[in-house]
Amino acid sequence: MADSLNCDLNSLSPLQLFERVTEQGEKVRALKAGKAPKDEIDAAVRMLLSLKLSYKTTTGQDYQAGLPPRDLALINNGTTKEEDEDFVDPWTVQTSNAKGVDYDKLIVRFGSSKIDTDLINRIERAIGQKPHRFLRRGIFFSHRDMDQILDAYENKKSFYLYTGRGPSSQAMHVGHLIPFIFTKWLQEVFDVPLVIQLTDDEKYLWKDLTTEKAYEYARENAKDIIACGFDVNKTFIFSDLDYLGSSAGFYKNIVKVQKHVTFNQVKGIFGFTDSDCIGKISFPAIQAAPSFSSSFPQIFNGKENIQCLIPCAIDQDPYFRMTRDVAPRIGQPKPALLHSVFFPALQGAQTKMSASDPNSSIFLTDTPKQIKTKINKHAFSGGRDTIEEHRKYGGNCDVDVSFMYLTFFLEDDDRLEQLKQAYTSGELLTGELKKVLIETLQPLIAAHQERRKQVTDEMVKQFMTPRKLAFEF
């Protein structure tokens, strides 16, 4: 039995081992609190000590509650140099691979679960319709506890959605639309409340902005978010600088999280140093708090047991691993997550788009001419050096940015596959593929701009006013 357990533990990643130790620790506490028989408690403690020993053997470090093994410092257990070249944290994404980040390795490193065919089929059965193209194409590729969300939905229990935006500039780019396009679809097919956090406080702390400018950007970004088509009766958008001062429930949860996470832990998770301001160190608790329904008493009628589902890019996962570790210790359900890949910069998939580099991004304010110029001039090509070579050897869709963008925005699966085959065979040239992308993005962005023009300051105020939504709890 012991050999079987050890074999099982040896197959786990450091992050999975960390979660096993955490869960066993919670079990021991629950048994002690419930005054369980001594032999049952002793057996659970022995299991906990065995798990901690396996964790130390694998990682070379003692288990510390709330401090997972550092994402960016890969455990030295035979990893190759290539694995070390992917750098992912909430602020920076870099890889030397033209195909982009290796997401399968990232799943192992972060200890999440792959969104496989079985899960996609289960979502399809639950909602009674074809899954979103982001699921079909692996754009949302990883999850935590999505099966629990589906269990709740199938048993007529509610959940809610939470996503966010860090308003670092007045204009958003097309990459920023990805979580909102998907979240809108999730809200429609599951018919659940949605809260959207605008972290203007974070941008004030990290960027050279005044609080007034950060709040102004938040309101401008809210207009772009509203233009995605969210239902005002089912959606609450809030600025941290605004909402924190008016919600006792929100602040109470922030304080609870802050009490259960040490400075040493946030240094390990986020890489903070002794030189960082205390605002940065305490910010993760503010991003954690919307994961708990009691942060929104006006929506959930004070109920604390409504589980949360968070669609976000994978670089935001460290915040929510911390949140999931703290949740049971403050009597809250762990949030579930759906992780997306990064939207690549025009220059290639080695980095994600940057709002501060106008040539790395297609902005939602760009004109049709600007879109055409940027794609033709800057979009990294997977084509050959000459037309003759391209016709003979074909293009590489794995590194071609125009094709990558089409996987995000072209709805028709058959058309996308035809383009892939034609480009790979050399029948379709790079300029022709870029033309397809231009003709896809120009009307999409023009339509968004038209919808945004209809968003008034009064509409923004409606979305951002704390209130009851069209749900009963």
Automatic annotation (TrEMBL):
Annotated InterPro entries: aa-tRNA-synth_I_CS, aa-tRNA-synth_Ic, Rossmann-like_a/b/a_fold, Trp-tRNA-ligase, uS15_NS1_RNA-bd_sf, WHEP-TRS_dom
Domain WHEP-TRS: 13-69
GO molecular function: ATP binding; tryptophan-tRNA ligase activity
Pfam families hit by this protein: tRNA-synt_1b, WHEP-TRS
The keyword Cell membrane is assigned to this record: no
NCBIfam families to which the protein is assigned, alphabetical: trpS (TIGR00233)
BP-aspect Gene Ontology terms: tryptophanyl-tRNA aminoacylation
Superkingdom classification of source: Eukaryota
Enzyme class: ligase
Keywords, ordered alphabetically: Aminoacyl-tRNA synthetase, ATP-binding, Ligase, Nucleotide-binding, Phosphoprotein, Protein biosynthesis
Organism, as annotated: Mesembrinibis cayennensis
E.C. numbers: 6.1.1.2
Xref: SUPFAM superfamilies: Nucleotidylyl transferase, S15/NS1 RNA-binding domain
Protein name in the entry: Tryptophan--tRNA ligase, cytoplasmic
CDD domains: TrpRS_core, WEPRS_RNA
PANTHER family in the cross-refs: TRYPTOPHAN--TRNA LIGASE, CYTOPLASMIC (PTHR10055:SF1), TRYPTOPHANYL-TRNA SYNTHETASE (PTHR10055)
Sequence similarity: Belongs to the class-I aminoacyl-tRNA synthetase family.
One GO CC term, this protein: cytoplasm
